[in-house]
Design goal:
It is built from 13 helices and five strands. About 6% of the residues have low confidence. With 328 residues, the protein is an alpha+beta fold.
C-alpha cells in the first residue's frame, strides 16, 4: 500500500501532548505522533497505511459507528468514548475527537485521543469508592493535561461535599442521602465539556475576545453531549441519576438574577445542585492562580461572593458557604 504524506499545514497537530492520528477521507491512517505509539503499543511504521479501525476491539456499538460516520460525512467534528485493543491485547478506553480539516480541496481527519485506562472496570464491580474514582477519571481524562485543572476538579468536589453537608444540617437533614451523594460524586464532572474547547482559547494568557468568550460558553452544552455519549457507550449504568449529572454540567454557569448561560435561568429555576456548584467553582477559581490572573486571598474571594449575593448566587447558599470556609 502506498503511504501518502500529510500536508505541512497538519504537521503542527502532531506536536500536541495528546495522542494524535491523521487520516484521509477514507479513514486510512496517514500519520500519528509519538504519544499515539506509546498509548497503543504499535510502532508508527505498522500503523500508517492501515484503516482507522485497526485497533477495533469489536466492543464498539453499531450506533456509535453510525454517529461517527454520519458526523464526518456531513463535515462535522465528532467526539465520544471508544474501546480499543493495545498490542499487548489489553483493552483501553479513550476519549477521542475527530475533526475534518480541508487543505487544498482535500479533506483530512485529525483525531485527538485522551486515554482513560482506569475506565476498565469490571461490569459487576460498582462499589461506591470505585465509582468515585471512575468519576475522577472521566473528568480528568476529558480535560487537557493541565495539573492545575486536575487539582481544581478535585478541590471542587471536596468543597462541594462540605457545603452540601452543611446545607443539609441547616435544613434539618431534609435532603435525601442519595441526592447528597450524587451531587458530591457528579460535582467533579462540571467542566467535562471543556474537552471540546481549543487549548488556545482555554489557556489563553490574557483577556478573551467576544468570540472566544462565546466559544468558552459552549462548554456546558458540549459537556451534556459528552455525558450522554459516555453513558450510551458503557455496558453498565454508570450514571444512576442522569438528571443530577446533567443539571450540574449544564447549569453551573447560570446566575441567580438570570444573566448566566447557557439558558439564562433565574432564581430557583436553576436546579439546587447547579446553584451549589456555581459558588464552589467560582470560589476555587478566584483563590487559584490561572494563566490570566493571580490568585486572590480567601478574604478577597469571600468578599466577592458576598457582593454577588442575589446577583450571581443564591444569598442563603453564599451564607452557608462562608460559614464552611470560616470553619476550615
Amino acid at each position: 500500500m502506498i503511504k501518502r504524506k500529510i500536508p505541512d499545514e497538519l504537521t503542527y497537530y502532531l506536536k500536541l501532548g495528546d495522542a494524535v492520528v491523521i487520516t484521509d477521507d477514507n479513514q486510512i491512517i496517514l500519520e500519528v505522533n509519538n504519544q499515539y505509539e506509546i498509548i497503543t503499543g504499535h510502532k508508527r511504521e505498522s500503523i500508517i497505511g492501515t484503516t482507522a479501525e485497526f485497533l477495533n476491539s469489536n466492543m464498539k456499538p453499531i450506533i456509535l459507528y453510525k454517529s461517527l460516520k454520519n458526523a464526518l460525512k456531513n463535515g462535522k467534528s465528532w467526539s465520544g468514548v471508544l474501546v480499543d485493543i493495545k498490542k499487548t491485547s489489553e483493552l483501553w478506553y479513550s476519549f477521542i475527537t475527530m475533526t475534518p480539516i480541508k487543505v487544498h480541496e482535500q479533506v483530512y481527519y485529525v483525531g485527538i485521543t485522551r486515554i482513560a485506562e482506569q475506565l476498565v472496570v469490571e461490569e459487576n464491580n460498582r462499589a461506591k469508592e470505585e465509582q468515585k474514582d471512575l468519576f475522577k477519571v472521566l473528568a480528568i481524562s476529558s480535560e487537557i493535561r493541565d495539573i492545575g485543572i486536575v487539582e481544581h476538579l478535585l478541590r471542587v468536589q471536596k468543597l462541594t461535599e462540605k457545603l452540601v453537608l452543611a446545607l443539609n444540617e441547616e435544613r434539618k437533614n431534609s435532603l435525601p442521602v442519595e441526592y447528597i451523594d450524587k451531587i458530591i460524586y457528579y460535582s467533579i464532572l462540571h467542566d467535562i465539556g471543556k474537552s471540546g474547547i481549543p487549548e488556545s482559547v482555554l489557556y489563553k494568557p490574557g483577556p478573551l475576545t467576544f468570540y472566544e468568550r462565546k466559544i468558552i460558553e459552549m462548554h456546558p452544552l458540549i459537556g451534556i453531549e459528552v455525558l450522554h455519549k459516555i453513558s450510551d457507550v458503557m455496558n453498565y449504568n454508570l450514571f444512576e441519576n442522569m438528571e443530577i449529572a446533567s443539571n450540574i454540567i449544564k447549569y453551573h454557569h447560570e446566575k441567580w438574577d438570570g444573566t448566566g448561560y447557557p439558558e439564562g435561568l433565574k432564581g430557583e429555576a436553576i436546579p439546587l445542585e447547579a446553584r451549589i456548584i456555581a459558588i464552589v467553582d467560582v470560589y476555587d477559581a478566584l483563590v487559584s492562580k490561572r494563566s490570566y490572573k493571580e490568585s486572590w486571598s480567601k478574604e478577597e474571594a469571600l468578599t466577592y461572593l458576598n457582593e454577588q449575593k442575589g446577583i450571581h448566587f443564591e444569598p442563603s447558599l453564599v451564607d452557608a458557604f462562608i460559614k464552611v470556609i470560616d470553619k476550615s
